[in-house]
């Protein structure tokens, strides 16, 4: 029986993870911790269904509601960031890190310290603190398995290979909701329009990040951090069908592509069964019916986020933490209708200009304290930039 925990259990990745756990033969998994946010009914229902040891909501003001919902179940209830850290420190064999945003970093670090296998959907952890997370995991003997579909694809293409023989990594992108919009219309894009993805069913924030390409920007940085590959070898390619998830090019000119349906249960299932492979209930592709795969280069003018990612990959240090925090604030401001769609990239660029070039940050080591400080400063600067943009 494998002991598992799911951080962000009520979200899109979390629910897909629990779907696979529920389908496994009885007695395969023993659920330690499940965590969520404001959706107490779902968190409590899943904690009961899987007989979890503990359920944690991110929000202290929801603790009473969670206790009530769990009354008589024997499941412990807890709330807040400290409770999330404590739950992550509980011994488990496998931990899914699927909280959205920088809030996922600390639970992931705690889980890595226990030596658990860390299934990492929270790409922000690698963007903000890649070297710290990787070194923490290495020191504790914890294996990190990427759950982002593109990175799972690269990971699978690299089994048995020497990373030193990799010439290029191609991360595909659907192009998002506005890939075919006329450029001049982008400024008018609404939250509702940006929240609908052509191929993938995901949480709202990552769906909007797909429309703006900030998701791919995060993924380029994530690939550099996770695989330790030089920025100039990593590229993004628009592939509207979302069936080829990534390609790895080797020094002999060969390209290994990973092909599969746009269903996150593949990448989650790969991480769940690793190092073995096990059955995953995703659609089997009928390639003759599909007929063709198409690719095109991403247009720089449509997707300014990609150039910002390149700058962060080259700069390194704490610029990833600054980039991510600025992006999170700009995204929240867009969702709250305080700024327009194109202003998100403008805000992030201004914050990078103002914050990431500061000498104290540029030369700082990537410790948790320094990441927190860079994150805080970037959010403050983003808030000021957004306030000026609105005024
Ligand atoms: P989601 O919004 O559907 O779910 C997020 C989860 O995090 C929920 O359980 C929510 O309650 C919890 N949460 C939100 N804010 C929190 C906070 N401050 N503290 C603690 N918990 C909090 O998001 P998602 O789409 O499942 O994405 C989760 C992560 O996986 C993200 O990092 C995303 O980039 C990554 N990812 C998602 C997909 C996908 O298909 N959805 C694909 C690849 C990578
Ligand atoms: Mg992805």
Automatic annotation (TrEMBL):
<feature type="binding site">
    <location>
        <position position="210"/>
    </location>
    <ligand>
        <name>1-deoxy-D-xylulose 5-phosphate</name>
    </ligand>
</feature>
<feature type="binding site">
    <location>
        <position position="215"/>
    </location>
    <ligand>
        <name>1-deoxy-D-xylulose 5-phosphate</name>
    </ligand>
</feature>
<feature type="binding site">
    <location>
        <position position="12"/>
    </location>
    <ligand>
        <name>NADPH</name>
    </ligand>
</feature>
<feature type="binding site">
    <location>
        <position position="39"/>
    </location>
    <ligand>
        <name>NADPH</name>
    </ligand>
</feature>
<feature type="binding site">
    <location>
        <position position="148"/>
    </location>
    <ligand>
        <name>Mn(2+)</name>
    </ligand>
</feature>
<feature type="binding site">
    <location>
        <position position="216"/>
    </location>
    <ligand>
        <name>1-deoxy-D-xylulose 5-phosphate</name>
    </ligand>
</feature>
<feature type="binding site">
    <location>
        <position position="150"/>
    </location>
    <ligand>
        <name>Mn(2+)</name>
    </ligand>
</feature>
<feature type="binding site">
    <location>
        <position position="123"/>
    </location>
    <ligand>
        <name>1-deoxy-D-xylulose 5-phosphate</name>
    </ligand>
</feature>
<feature type="binding site">
    <location>
        <position position="13"/>
    </location>
    <ligand>
        <name>NADPH</name>
    </ligand>
</feature>
<dbReference type="InterPro" id="IPR013512">
    <property type="entry name" value="DXP_reductoisomerase_N"/>
</dbReference>
<keyword id="KW-0413">Isomerase</keyword>
<feature type="binding site">
    <location>
        <position position="122"/>
    </location>
    <ligand>
        <name>NADPH</name>
    </ligand>
</feature>
<keyword id="KW-0560">Oxidoreductase</keyword>
<keyword id="KW-0414">Isoprene biosynthesis</keyword>
<comment type="pathway">
    <text>Isoprenoid biosynthesis; isopentenyl diphosphate biosynthesis via DXP pathway; isopentenyl diphosphate from 1-deoxy-D-xylulose 5-phosphate: step 1/6.</text>
</comment>
<dbReference type="Pfam" id="PF08436">
    <property type="entry name" value="DXP_redisom_C"/>
</dbReference>
<keyword id="KW-0460">Magnesium</keyword>
<dbReference type="GO" id="GO:0051484">
    <property type="term" value="P:isopentenyl diphosphate biosynthetic process, methylerythritol 4-phosphate pathway involved in terpenoid biosynthetic process"/>
</dbReference>
<dbReference type="Pfam" id="PF13288">
    <property type="entry name" value="DXPR_C"/>
</dbReference>
<feature type="binding site">
    <location>
        <position position="174"/>
    </location>
    <ligand>
        <name>1-deoxy-D-xylulose 5-phosphate</name>
    </ligand>
</feature>
<keyword id="KW-0479">Metal-binding</keyword>
<feature type="binding site">
    <location>
        <position position="219"/>
    </location>
    <ligand>
        <name>1-deoxy-D-xylulose 5-phosphate</name>
    </ligand>
</feature>
<feature type="binding site">
    <location>
        <position position="219"/>
    </location>
    <ligand>
        <name>Mn(2+)</name>
    </ligand>
</feature>
<dbReference type="GO" id="GO:0070402">
    <property type="term" value="F:NADPH binding"/>
</dbReference>
<feature type="binding site">
    <location>
        <position position="37"/>
    </location>
    <ligand>
        <name>NADPH</name>
    </ligand>
</feature>
<feature type="binding site">
    <location>
        <position position="150"/>
    </location>
    <ligand>
        <name>1-deoxy-D-xylulose 5-phosphate</name>
    </ligand>
</feature>
<feature type="binding site">
    <location>
        <position position="149"/>
    </location>
    <ligand>
        <name>1-deoxy-D-xylulose 5-phosphate</name>
    </ligand>
</feature>
<comment type="similarity">
    <text>Belongs to the DXR family.</text>
</comment>
<dbReference type="GO" id="GO:0030145">
    <property type="term" value="F:manganese ion binding"/>
</dbReference>
<keyword id="KW-0521">NADP</keyword>
<feature type="domain" description="1-deoxy-D-xylulose 5-phosphate reductoisomerase C-terminal">
    <location>
        <begin position="144"/>
        <end position="227"/>
    </location>
</feature>
<feature type="binding site">
    <location>
        <position position="124"/>
    </location>
    <ligand>
        <name>NADPH</name>
    </ligand>
</feature>
<feature type="binding site">
    <location>
        <position position="11"/>
    </location>
    <ligand>
        <name>NADPH</name>
    </ligand>
</feature>
<feature type="domain" description="1-deoxy-D-xylulose 5-phosphate reductoisomerase N-terminal">
    <location>
        <begin position="4"/>
        <end position="130"/>
    </location>
</feature>
<dbReference type="GO" id="GO:0030604">
    <property type="term" value="F:1-deoxy-D-xylulose-5-phosphate reductoisomerase activity"/>
</dbReference>
<comment type="function">
    <text>Catalyzes the NADPH-dependent rearrangement and reduction of 1-deoxy-D-xylulose-5-phosphate (DXP) to 2-C-methyl-D-erythritol 4-phosphate (MEP).</text>
</comment>
<dbReference type="InterPro" id="IPR026877">
    <property type="entry name" value="DXPR_C"/>
</dbReference>
<dbReference type="InterPro" id="IPR036291">
    <property type="entry name" value="NAD(P)-bd_dom_sf"/>
</dbReference>
<feature type="binding site">
    <location>
        <position position="10"/>
    </location>
    <ligand>
        <name>NADPH</name>
    </ligand>
</feature>
<dbReference type="InterPro" id="IPR013644">
    <property type="entry name" value="DXP_reductoisomerase_C"/>
</dbReference>
<feature type="domain" description="DXP reductoisomerase C-terminal">
    <location>
        <begin position="260"/>
        <end position="380"/>
    </location>
</feature>
<dbReference type="Pfam" id="PF02670">
    <property type="entry name" value="DXP_reductoisom"/>
</dbReference>
């Amino acid at each position: 029986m494998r002991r598992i925990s799911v951080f962000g259990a009520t979200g899109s990745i979390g629910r897909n993870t629990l779907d696979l756990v529920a389908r496994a033969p009885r007695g395969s998994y023993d659920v330690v911790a499940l965590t969520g946010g404001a959706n107490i009914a779902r968190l409590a229902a899943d904690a009961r269904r899987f007989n979890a040891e503990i359920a944690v909501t991110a929000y202290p003001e929801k603790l009473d509601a969670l206790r009530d919902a769990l009354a008589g179940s024997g499941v412990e209830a807890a709330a807040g960031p400290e409770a999330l850290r404590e739950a992550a420190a509980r011994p488990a064999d496998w931990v899914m890190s699927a909280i959205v945003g920088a809030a996922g970093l600390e639970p992931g670090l705690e889980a890595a310290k226990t030596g658990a296998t860390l299934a990492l959907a929270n790409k922000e952890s690698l963007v903000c603190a890649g070297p710290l997370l990787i070194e923490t995991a290495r020191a504790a003997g914890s294996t990190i398995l990427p759950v982002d579909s593109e990175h799972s694809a690269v990971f699978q293409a690299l089994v048995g290979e020497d990373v030193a023989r990799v010439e290029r990594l191609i991360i595909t992108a659907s192009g998002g909701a506005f890939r075919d919009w006329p450029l001049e219309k982008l400024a008018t894009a609404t939250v509702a329009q940006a929240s609908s993805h052509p191929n993938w069913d995901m949480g709202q924030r990552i769906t909007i990040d797909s429309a703006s390409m900030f998701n791919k920007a995060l993924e380029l940085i994530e690939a550099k951090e996770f695989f330790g590959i030089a920025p100039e070898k990593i590229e993004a390619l628009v592939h509207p069908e979302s069936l080829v998830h990534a390609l790895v090019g080797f020094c002999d000119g060969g390209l290994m592509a990973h092909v599969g349906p746009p269903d996150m249960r593949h990448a989650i299932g790969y991480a769940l069964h690793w190092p073995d492979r096990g059955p995953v209930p995703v659609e089997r592709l009928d390639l003759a019916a599909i007929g063709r795969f198409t690719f095109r280069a991403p247009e720089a003018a449509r997707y300014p986020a990609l150039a910002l990612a390149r700058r962060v990959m080259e700069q390194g240090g704490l610029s990833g933490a600054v980039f991510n925090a600025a992006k999170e604030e700009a995204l929240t401001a867009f969702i709250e209708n305080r700024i327009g769609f194109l202003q998100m990239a403008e805000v992030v660029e201004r914050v990078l200009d103002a914050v990431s070039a500061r000498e104290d940050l540029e030369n700082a080591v990537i410790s948790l304290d320094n990441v927190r400080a860079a994150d805080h400063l970037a959010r403050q600067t983003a808030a000021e930039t957004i306030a000026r943009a609105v005024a």
